[in-house]
């Protein structure tokens, strides 16, 4: 376990003062150096102040985590020099990081961050004894606070956007820099290309004065002498910085072919160790990035465009990506490695799965009216996008996995995309890349928990962000079932988790519950040969398995972590500055928990059965059209659901009742308890259990032929229907694989791996800390088998 992630102080602070000022656009210009394992460069922030915070009262408190009443001391920039911390300036209690400047190619090993004080921040940052204000205290200066960790910040300066040639053509005040930024951000959505072009030009403009800055464990704090309000603060600033090899937002490793690679891993601290940013989900922004790396590498990012490399001198290439849909900074993703690209030979809109149930009409996809989100080039308003069943897609993987991807993964993408479109309508994003990540992908890592971020699926060996999905190579093994369901789960996140995000990260069920419920629906429709009754049986079987997994989960986890809406009536609340704390955001136990997946799934399954599937999915399409591009809370979904269904279909259903029974209580929800018998009586599950029992009998008497075991142990004998034949097939597979046989070396190794896997499960379950190294070693050496065993057994 990471010593910094103290279980007794497991809350994650979001300290950015988003109520005072918001980052509306980022421009990143980065170099990736594999030799030093460092990403370095600049990031330009384009800011917008909130008018209602121009006159802040003196009660708002946010800033340096010092216990003294001294004024905050900031690094004073010196001409032509990089500012360096004076270690004598700060008390030893503060624990500030020193800035150690390393030459290119040298690993930066500085910055041993301590932990934050959980007691001080438990009720919100504003209650801490901070001595610098982010609002207006009369004569005091405005403070911009960004979420930042494990970074070496070298320089901060204001950008002279007024010096950009041609900037005067769309601004009425060519000499007022903040007004120029405001008018640039206010350009209409149909001028997005011009807007991106001028963002890029402004980002390359010269500096017009260095700004004072400092850092603590979780933040970067910036101020300008004389700027007393957010309106006076520069609205375009450039930060020169460098990541650290031990930074927790990215992983430097080798792929399955032994080639170096680096990628974001869904860290508990999100992207704040990749670039300074505003982490709270309300800080919706766009971005563009230029990344340079050696010409032998491919750079993938969560951008809207399928970037192609631009050849530079000295065997280097440059890649450029952009995003025009405002999204939280935590959705930014980068992956650099020696990936091989694979595309489908033919990607035709006619090559889709046959639609059966829940088939929406043309009107379902083309609602009349304007979108409810902030203005951006939205696909829901484009006729060509509303009818596009299969979006362009690519697969990237190490060369050694090319054959497996072409055989297993590529053929599944078109039917899964088409199935999703037939259920929910317009694809929110214009393209999809799928990357097979290295074997040490930390989906079961001990210290890598992401309990609040919608975009990372620890329990499903995958990681979904806009325009790109990370999949573990374990999904390529065996039949298409595991790969198909994983893919459907991540495709579902395009709507729930990405296009529609949770305003409070503790409400993880709003993404994971929906994705888990929809993966069954998508996968049933994607299997073209599957009859409707077979699809229902398959879904019932998976519900039965999830029920058993949920029972085990609530018996072996703390009650406080079983609640889907832990903040209750305070859900979505932040401090006056906009800062907040994510409860248990750094708790490593969360990585093994699936409560938000399972209870959320059963809630949505309960609602769909109560209302009728046609009614429910018709409403869901309407909900997506209403709330895409926005952040929601649980009550937004539930209130709209109850308002849009007939009175006779919602007896005893109310927002309050659902909160009480499903979202704000631990354990098994009462409505689900009443369904317990129905889940236990799942016909296909009973038949498979009987077949496995029969397999046990054959295993016990291997010298007897199957007929000699007797009809009591072989209830399928003489049956002809398809369900029993499928159950028989399962049982035969179990029987063949359990029958004693002369084992080769590979078989012995397989048994040994299974024993190690079970041993690790027991270690985690009983918190046997002395053996945590065994778990770490197993995850590193046998990652693929670990995932297959874990995810197959829960069938989620």
UniProtKB/TrEMBL annotation:
Keywords for the protein's UniProt record, in alphabetical order: Aminopeptidase, Hydrolase, Protease
Protein name: Aminopeptidase O isoform X9
Gene3D superfamilies in UniProt: 3.30.2010.30, Neutral Protease Domain 2 (1.10.390.10), tricorn interacting facor f3 domain (2.60.40.1730)
GO molecular function, one term: aminopeptidase activity
Pfam families: Peptidase_M1
Span of domain Peptidase M1 membrane alanine aminopeptidase: 484-662
């Amino acid at each position: 376990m990471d010593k910094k992630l103290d279980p007794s102080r497991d809350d994650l602070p979001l300290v950015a003062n988003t109520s005072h000022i918001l980052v509306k656009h980022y421009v990143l210009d980065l170099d990736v150096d594999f030799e030093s394992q460092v990403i370095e460069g600049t990031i330009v922030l384009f800011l917008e102040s909130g008018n209602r915070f121009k006159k802040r009262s003196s009660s708002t408190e946010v800033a340096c985590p010092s216990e003294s009443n001294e004024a905050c001391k900031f690094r004073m920039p010196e001409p032509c020099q990089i500012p360096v911390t004076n270690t004598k300036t700060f008390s030893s209690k503060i624990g500030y990081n020193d800035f150690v400047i390393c030459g290119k190619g040298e690993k930066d090993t500085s910055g041993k961050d301590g932990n934050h004080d959980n007691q001080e921040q438990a009720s919100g940052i504003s209650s801490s004894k901070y001595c610098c204000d982010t609002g207006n205290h009369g004569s005091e200066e405005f403070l911009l606070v960004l979420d930042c960790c494990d970074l070496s910040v070298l320089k901060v300066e204001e950008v002279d956007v007024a010096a950009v040639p041609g900037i005067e053509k769309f601004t009425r005040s060519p000499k007022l820099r903040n007004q120029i930024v405001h008018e640039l951000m206010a350009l209409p959505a149909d001028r997005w290309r011009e807007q991106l072009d001028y963002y890029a030009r402004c980002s390359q403009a010269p500096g017009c004065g260095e700004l004072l800055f400092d850092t603590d464990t979780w933040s970067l704090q910036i101020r300008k002498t004389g700027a007393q309000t957010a309106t006076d603060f520069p609205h375009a600033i450039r930060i020169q910085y460098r990541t650290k090899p031990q930074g927790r937002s990215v992983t430097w490793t080798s792929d399955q072919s032994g080639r170096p690679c680096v990628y974001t891993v869904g860290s508990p601290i999100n992207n704040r160790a990749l670039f300074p940013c505003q982490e709270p989900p309300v800080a919706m922004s766009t971005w563009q990035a230029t990344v340079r790396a050696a010409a032998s590498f491919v750079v993938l990012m969560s951008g809207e465009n399928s970037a192609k490399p631009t050849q530079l001198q000295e065997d280097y290439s440059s890649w450029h990506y952009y995003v025009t849909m405002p999204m939280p900074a935590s959705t930014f993703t980068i992956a650099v490695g020696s990936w091989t690209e694979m595309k489908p030979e033919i990607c035709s809109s006619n090559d889709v799965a046959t639609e059966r149930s829940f088939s929406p009409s043309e009107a379902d996809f083309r609602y009349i009216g304007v979108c409810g989100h902030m203005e951006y080039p939205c696909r829901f308003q484009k006729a060509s996008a509303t009818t596009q069943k299969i979006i362009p897609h690519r697969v990237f993987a190490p060369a050694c996995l090319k054959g497996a991807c072409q055989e297993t993964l590529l053929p599944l993408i078109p039917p899964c995309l088409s199935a999703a479109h037939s259920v929910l309508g317009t694809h929110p994003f214009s393209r999809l890349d799928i990357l097979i990540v290295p074997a040490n992908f930390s989906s079961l890592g001990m210290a890598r928990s992401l309990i609040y971020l919608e975009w990372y699926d620890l329990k499903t060996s995958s990681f979904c962000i806009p325009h790109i999905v990370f999949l573990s190579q374990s999904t390529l093994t065996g039949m298409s079932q595991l790969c198909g369901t994983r893919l459907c789960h991540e495709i579902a996140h395009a709507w729930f988790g990405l296009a529609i995000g949770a305003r409070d990260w503790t409400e993880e069920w709003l993404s994971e519950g929906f994705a888990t419920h929809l993966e069954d629906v998508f996968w049933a429709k994607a299997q073209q040969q599957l009859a409707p009754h077979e699809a229902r049986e398959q879904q019932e079987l998976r519900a039965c398995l999830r029920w058993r997994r949920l029972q085990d989960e609530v018996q072996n986890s703390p009650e406080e972590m079983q609640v889907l809406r832990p903040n209750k009536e305070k859900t979505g609340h932040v401090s006056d500055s906009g800062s907040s704390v994510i409860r248990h955001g750094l708790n490593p136990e969360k990585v093994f928990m699936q409560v938000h997946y399972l209870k959320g799934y059963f809630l949505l399954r309960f609602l769909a059965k109560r209302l009728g599937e046609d009614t429910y999915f018709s409403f869901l399409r309407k909900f997506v059209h209403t709330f895409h591009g926005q952040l929601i809370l649980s009550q937004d979904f539930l209130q709209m659901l109850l308002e849009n269904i007939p009175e006779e279909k919602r007896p005893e259903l109310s927002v309050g009742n659902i909160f009480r029974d499903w979202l704000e209580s631990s354990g098994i929800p009462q409505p689900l308890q009443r369904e317990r018998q129905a889940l236990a009586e799942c016909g296909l599950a009973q038949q498979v259990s009987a077949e496995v029992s029969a397999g046990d009998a054959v295993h016990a008497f291997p010298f007897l032929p199957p007929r000699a075991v007797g009809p009591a142990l072989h209830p399928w004998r003489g049956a002809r229907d398809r369900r029993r034949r499928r159950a028989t097939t399962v049982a035969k597979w179990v029987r063949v694989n359990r029958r004693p046989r002369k084992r080769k070396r590979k078989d012995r190794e397989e048994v040994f791996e299974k024993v190690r896997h079970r041993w690790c499960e027991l270690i985690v379950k009983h918190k046997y800390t002395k053996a945590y190294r065994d778990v770490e070693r197993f995850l590193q050496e046998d990652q693929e088998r670990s995932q297959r065993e874990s995810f197959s057994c829960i069938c989620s």
